[in-house]
Amino acid sequence: MQRLFTNIGWLLGGRGINAVLSIVYLALATRTLGLEMFGHFAAIVAVGLVVTGIANFQTWQFIVRWGANGANGTNGDGTAASEATGFAIALDLLSIAMGLVLAAVLVWSAPYWLPLPEDLLPLTFGYCVVSLLAIRTTPMGLLRLRFKYAAATAAETVQPVVRTLGAVLAWIYMPTVTGFILAYAVSELAVAVALWIAAARSERIDLSALSLTRIPARHKDAWRFVWSTNMSGSLTIAGKQITILLVGAFGGAALLGGFRVASQLGQALVALAQTISKAILPELVHAKEDALVIARRMANVALIGGILAVLFAVVFGRLGLDLIAGSEFRGRGFYWALVILSIAGAVELVGASLESLLVSAGRAGTAFLVRAAPTLLAFGLLDLAIGWNGALGAAFTVLGSSALAVIGFYVAILNLAEIRIEVDADKDAEAPPEPPRT
């Protein structure tokens, strides 16, 4: 537990720096571009995140899962980490190919459903290409496998620093949507390079091990785990961005821009939930016997943190919107949307350790199904919710989706615990009786 909290401390330190700097570049973008143009900017960023979220495989989980098992001696030949890395890099290349096709489809169809001017469509596709080239889950997996959280945090800090500097330059020299998108694109490439350098220093990267067949040959359930975690990760990452795009499709660029600001401020806890999930999964994989206890403790800590964060959003949310986004973002229910989204973030924070426990137990498919049903329900109700109460209605769909997913994780874990108890009971019944003691 001490190592877990130390790792979370490093990750949260990086998140803290990111949070402070994100306020700076968010304020520069919103005040420079205004409500509608910021909506265009937010739509381009969201399209890029949707493309990478759907196409990107959660390769860091594969490295932790199969690299850690090999480190514990299950393979016996010491090549597990190298093979897991080769498999992950091969999947990254597959992600880029899939992502390019998806990006082309989304950008080609954007004029029919997304409030984006046609002159911004080439920029949108270019940002998608950069986002795909900057996929970095594999180096993150290598650093987490070796518990190099300090190195990972230092490398990840490159992104907010470069993004903030780029936003300042855009504000001075190119105060347009293009200028701020270029700042975002450069920061994506910079952090990817920094993480690969950090990973290469901690683990030798053998490109000769690049293969899509070696790991599946050793682990029969490999592809099922790959697709399950990919779909689950797509729902978690891309699902939120699809919601933002649909808000724009149903409510226009101005509503999209305001909802994006409320989402970034109110759902900072979702990033915190993902941070805890990334820190806890390696611990659960390495300490399977104590996994349930670790997950329960982390859920309790997350509950306290979530309550405090929601109270902070209620008290300071309106002031934050005024200071960061300006008077143009006042009204339209954006403050209350921020509060509701912060509650959704708190719910996700509690559910992060529960979802990680399911994945570490080999139930990634269950985690995906539990996440998929409420997410699709939220998409179906979003148009009706926006028609009812604009940004506030959209926020309620996000909260409902998060709450149903976490309840589902809890029920699935209860069933998992019951299965383990029944298996242990069967083993005890089959075991031969102990000889009488003399």
TrEMBL record:
Keywords: Cell membrane, Membrane, Transmembrane, Transmembrane helix. It comes from the Bacteria. The keyword Membrane applies. Coiled coil: none annotated. GO terms for cellular component: plasma membrane. It is a multi-pass membrane protein. This is Polysaccharide biosynthesis protein. It comes from Erythrobacter longus.
